[in-house]
């Protein structure tokens, strides 16, 4: 019998496993009461033990009340505080909305990561994480999404076209911020962390938000820097992007990314069978169990059948999990139970 950690690494290496590796994801706070009641537990740690989860997430302890979330560390919105991570919008007017001069990039009050990341708490969280689990830091480092927020989505994409040096100056400065965050977090967790989750949402349900050529020109250079930094600490890199990202999956693996998260099951060209055929020899995947419809409206038997299908398509190379890391309150806890029962069957 493999340990959780051994199973995680074997899956990423696309080597034989005793059973598929799996991950619950990151339930939002409003989803926890139903999950706790269904499984008869009182903490997320107890829930993970009950379902025999393989991956233990370690968030960056970024102190920026009231959110305390590195995903909300750059408050570009011109009005309001931007809300919690699951409430904010990228379409609100941003600080750089009307700017085209790259020299103005330092007029934004960039936060100092050393003032916000609790080094001691990061080390404590990493040291206390179960040693037999795959310990995965949750960095996000969403430099493209934050660049969109810095201008407002529409203005960001216009700036990319009409003032490309301005867009590049902002996204590069955001990348520098996250590299400094990474340096602090990785030093604090050195020797305890196995992997890190970074990422940006590049896709909609039916296609990419911008062309592959634009991503290669403006976004992937920063992604490469973030990946290389994590690799320098010996970490496996998991890259998140929702949506239909088939046209750039080969690019992402080429940047040194080990695992693509997630397989968004209902997005165009993201069927497990197609991804296995097209990229099964390039890297590994997370996800696959549809969180848009199946886990919300399906029956437990339908969930079990879908997990069996995914296990046949990916005997290894796929860490089974819901097709979005955020477990929302509309997901039926009985279907989460069915998912993990089928993983272990």
Explain this structure.
The chain is α/β, with parallel strands linked by helices and 345 residues long. It is built from 14 helices and 9 strands. The strands form 2 sheets. Strands 2-3-4-5-6-7-8 form a 7-stranded parallel beta sheet. A two-stranded parallel ribbon has the order 1-9. The longest helix has 25 residues, at 164-188. The relative contact order is 0.15.
Strand order of the largest sheet: 2-3-4-5-6-7-8
Task: Spell the H/E element sequence.
Answer: HEHHEHHEHHHEHEHEHEHHEEH
Query: What does the main sheet amount to?
Result: 7 strands, parallel
Shape: globular
From the alpha-carbon coordinates, what is the Rg to the nearest angstrom?
Answer: 20 Å
Strand proportion: 5-15%
Ends distance: 14 Å
Uncertain runs: none
Backbone structural class:
alpha/beta
The mean pLDDT is: 95
The tally of beta strands, per DSSP, is 9
Count of helices?
A: 14
Question: Considering DSSP H and I runs of 4 or more, what fraction of the residues is helical?
Answer: 40-55%
Give me the secondary-structure topology.
Elements: H1 4-12, E1 26-27, H2 32-39, H3 44-51, E2 55-59, H4 113-116, H5 119-128, E3 134-140, H6 143-151, H7 153-162, H8 164-188, E4 195-199, H9 212-232, E5 236-240, H10 249-254, E6 259-263, H11 272-279, E7 284-289, H12 294-297, H13 300-313, E8 318-322, E9 326-327, H14 333-344
Parallel strand pairs: 1-9, 2-3, 3-4, 4-5, 5-6, 6-7, 7-8
Helix pairs in contact: 5-8, 6-7, 6-8, 7-8, 8-9, 13-14
Quickly list its features.
single chain; 345 residues; alpha/beta; 14 helices; 9 strands; 43% helix; 12% strand
